[in-house]
């Protein structure tokens, strides 16, 4: 499941990298955001940190949403691209919507979702276990 999130992350990074090279500005180099996982199950499914260029994914959400979580990954990677292209643009402004809806092809993408946090919390234990397994594999140098 973490691998799946990572694949989506890489896919949308490549997609936006192509967009920046071909359509926007060939001189701007898209710095690929690093990804981070958390087992927290609060009211956000993902978060982008502009100062570190990091996308953080909250694992109870992909466990709950399955393939629908790809849209969240796309959303966070778009924050990275928007921030690098127009650092002064509004967080969820017109340019951000252009990236999510037009460039990435989610015409109905909305920036706010009302997830049922009570249901999300049911996935926290499983998320913690996945995260521990992931960290163990990293320690063993297998990923
Ligand atoms: Zn956002």
Keywords:
143 residues, mainly alpha, Zincin-like, 3-stranded mixed beta sheet, 3 strands, 10% strand, globular, binds zinc ion
Reconstruct the topology from this structure:
Elements: H1 2-24, E1 34-38, E2 46-49, E3 54-58, H2 60-65, H3 70-85, H4 94-103, H5 117-121, H6 124-139
Helix pairs in contact: 1-3, 3-4
Query: Any idea of the CATH class?
Result: Alpha Beta
User: What is the string of helix and strand elements?
Assistant: HEEEHHHHH
Shape: globular
Level of helix content? 40-55%
- Give average pLDDT, whole number: 93
Largest sheet: 3 strands, mixed
Overall tally of domains: 1
Compact description:
β2 (46-49) and β3 form a beta hairpin.
Structural features, described:
The chain has 143 residues and is mostly helical. The chain has one domain (2-139): Zincin-like (2-Layer Sandwich). It has six helices and three strands. It has helices at 2-24, 60-65, 70-85, 94-103, 117-121, 124-139; strands at 34-38, 46-49, 54-58. It has a three-stranded mixed sheet with strand order 1-3-2. Strand 2 and strand 3 (54-58) form a beta hairpin. The mean pLDDT is 93. It binds zinc ion. Zinc ion binds at residues 75, 79, 92, 111.
């Amino acid at each position: 499941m973490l691998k799946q999130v990572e694949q989506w992350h890489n896919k949308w990074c490549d997609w936006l990298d192509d967009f920046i090279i071909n359509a926007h500005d060939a001189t701007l180099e898209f710095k690929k955001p690093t990804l981070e996982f958390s087992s927290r199950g609060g009211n956000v499914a993902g978060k982008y940190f502009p100062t570190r260029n990091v996308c953080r994914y909250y694992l109870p959400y992909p466990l709950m949403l399955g393939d629908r979580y790809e849209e969240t990954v796309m959303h966070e990677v778009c924050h990275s691209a928007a921030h690098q292209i127009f650092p002064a643009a509004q967080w969820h402004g017109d340019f951000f919507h252009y990236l999510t809806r037009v460039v990435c092809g989610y015409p109905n993408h909305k920036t706010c979702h009302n997830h049922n946090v009570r249901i999300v919390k049911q996935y926290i234990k499983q998320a913690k276990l996945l995260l521990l397994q992931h960290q163990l594999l990293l320690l063993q140098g297998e990923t």
